[in-house]
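Lecture notes, part 5. Sequence design as translation. It can be helpful to think of inverse folding as translation between two languages: the language of shapes and the language of residues. The source text, in structure tokens, appears below.
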């Protein structure tokens, strides 16, 4: 376990140095998912918190007077386990953290606030409950079904659908464009939109029981959030 703590510290330190040397929209580190053999979800969180806290302890005194931001969301649980660390967790365990309409909006809003939070040095993105994320909540896609069910011609349907997809893409773009290093801490299932979400992060760590799946093809849907190509590149490298 100590070897993994050292690896986590080095990864967080590298991401922090690179990010803070770059301006907004600068280089984003893209690292493969690292699987922590025999490590549980609680163990992974403890390791991440310890590593990130060690990296930023030295700057605590110089930033003590900076403004404190509050994070209150319905579908997200945001905590500050230590100075400089923000723990953002999907908070719909009863739905296996499936992303509904509120979650799409709140994730984007959360990371837009984080981008301006001078107290935040690193973000750990995870999920409450048994699984990291079960993908899009199919019980809450009224906008999609309303577009498909209209009598409009295919061109108008396509234009409306494009607008909807662009709004969903903006959620993950907010994670990717966040000037703070974002570490995905993955446990259990990471399915569909959950895979897209982790591809927008800078570093991915997962527990021994984590698994990944893009399920749109099984229900006759195209993976239209636009990050499949990024996922392929991450796996390839």
């Amino acid at each position: 376990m100590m070897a993994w703590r050292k690896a986590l510290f080095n990864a967080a330190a590298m991401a922090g140095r690179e990010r803070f040397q770059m301006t907004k929209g600068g280089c984003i580190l893209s690292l493969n998912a690292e699987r922590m053999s025999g490590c549980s979800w609680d163990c992974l969180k403890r390791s991440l918190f310890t590593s990130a806290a060690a990296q930023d302890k030295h700057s605590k005194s110089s930033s003590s007077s900076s403004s404190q931001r509050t994070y209150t969301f319905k579908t997200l649980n945001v905590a500050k386990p230590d100075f400089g660390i923000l723990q953002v967790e999907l908070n719909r365990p009863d739905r296996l953290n499936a992303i509904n309409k509120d979650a799409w909006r709140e994730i984007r809003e959360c990371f837009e606030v984080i981008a301006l939070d001078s107290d935040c040095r690193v973000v750990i993105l995870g999920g409450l409950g048994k699984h990291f994320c079960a993908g899009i909540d199919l019980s809450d896609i009224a906008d999609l079904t309303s577009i498909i069910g209209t009598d409009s011609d295919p061109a108008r349907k396509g234009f409306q659908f494009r607008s909807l997809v662009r709004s969903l893409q903006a959620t993950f773009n907010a994670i990717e464009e966040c000037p703070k290093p974002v570490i995905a801490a993955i446990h259990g299932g990471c399915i569909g939109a959950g895979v897209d979400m982790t591809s927008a992060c800078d570093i991915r760590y997962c527990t021994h029981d984590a698994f990944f799946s893009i399920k749109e093809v099984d229900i006759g849907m195209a993976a239209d959030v636009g990050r499949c190509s990024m996922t392929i590149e991450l796996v390839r490298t």
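The translated text above is only one of many valid answers, since several sequences can fold into similar shapes. The helical segments are 2-21, 41-56, 101-114, 142-148, 154-176, 193-199, 228-236.
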